[in-house]
Write a structure and sequence with these properties.
Elements lengths: L3 E7 L7 H11 L4 E7 L5 H10 L4 E4 L13 E2 L1 H6 L4 E5 L2 E5 L2 H6 L8 E5 L3 H8 L6 E6 L5 H12 L3 E3 L12 E4 L14 H5 L5 E4 L8 H8 L3 E3 L2 H16 L5 H9 L1
Helix pairs in contact: 1-10, 9-10
């Protein structure tokens, strides 16, 4: 039987721990498949999609900046992905590409502090997934920089969850009531930038900070949060949790999540 191909598309993507995680899981369950990263710039999306189809890829994950853009190339999307207009998992079903979103449910499975008031920074695909999957007893305030896309994102967030998108410049008004703050932007992925400073985190009087970015060293966002005593978590737990859900969509069997966790954190 020919080895099946799975993968990840993104820009950047070559830094990803997903190949290591999924290849270990496939090997453990004796699945004849391999998983690899495909990194390309946004202007190459059409040609790369065509290449993946020619390679008969059986499934792939989608990361920034393609979670919304990939939808135009799919044959169908599930209810959650349609609501979010964001896809992070694509499944090849008899030659048809079907999109799913596991980001949000994957994220909340990793949060064990029972937060009641959350400040979510970002309004892209990952942020919307987290917002739409929130527990019913959690209040989420969504913030972003007032950019050219702010008004459009505001309308989309309002339609999605009937929540107002707030200007990041106003976040200090909510931080004293906040017990979890989440960075769901890509700020800090490649440099030492942070959407908040230590004085912002001090307003929380304790609590937790989560950055969905993961890298070998803590992001500046997490460094500043830790400096004032907040509990911190990077995006690795979310990566494993949403990755396990993707794995189960592709192979219709339970993912070896303990192994996946071990592999990405060693």
């Amino acid at each position: 039987m020919e080895q099946q191909l799975y993968g990840l598309i993104g820009f950047p993507a070559m830094h990803s721990k997903s190949p290591r995680m999924h290849n270990a899981a496939m090997k453990k369950l004796k699945i004849n498949a391999k998983y690899q990263a495909f990194e390309f710039s946004p202007d190459q999306l059409s040609s790369e999609v065509e290449r993946l189809k020619n390679m008969n890829i059986r499934g792939f994950n989608v990361t920034m900046p393609f979670k919304n853009r990939i939808i135009d190339y799919l044959d169908g999307i599930d209810e959650v992905a349609n609501k979010l207009q964001s896809v992070n998992t694509v499944q090849n079903v008899n030659g048809k590409w079907i999109g799913h979103s596991t980001d949000g449910s994957g994220f909340w499975k990793t949060i064990h502090s029972n937060p009641k008031t959350v400040a979510l920074i970002g309004s892209g695909g990952a942020a919307r997934s987290i917002l739409a999957s929130k527990p019913d007893d959690v209040t989420v305030h969504v913030f972003n920089h007032r950019s050219a896309r702010f008004e459009q994102h505001s309308k989309e967030i309002k339609k999605l969850m009937n929540i107002e998108l707030e200007d990041l410049a106003d976040i200090r008004t909510i931080l004293p009531k906040t017990d979890l703050v989440i960075n769901a932007t890509n700020v800090g992925m490649r440099d030492d930038a942070s959407v908040l400073d230590e004085a912002d985190f001090e307003l929380m009087n304790g609590g937790s900070a989560v950055d969905i970015i993961y890298r070998d060293q803590p992001t500046e966002f997490l460094r500043r949060a830790a400096a004032v005593g907040l509990q911190t978590k990077n995006g690795l737990d979310m990566l494993v949790s949403q990755g396990a859900l993707s794995f189960e969509i592709w192979f219709n069997q339970k993912a070896p999540i303990e192994l996946m966790n071990k592999v990405v954190k060693k």
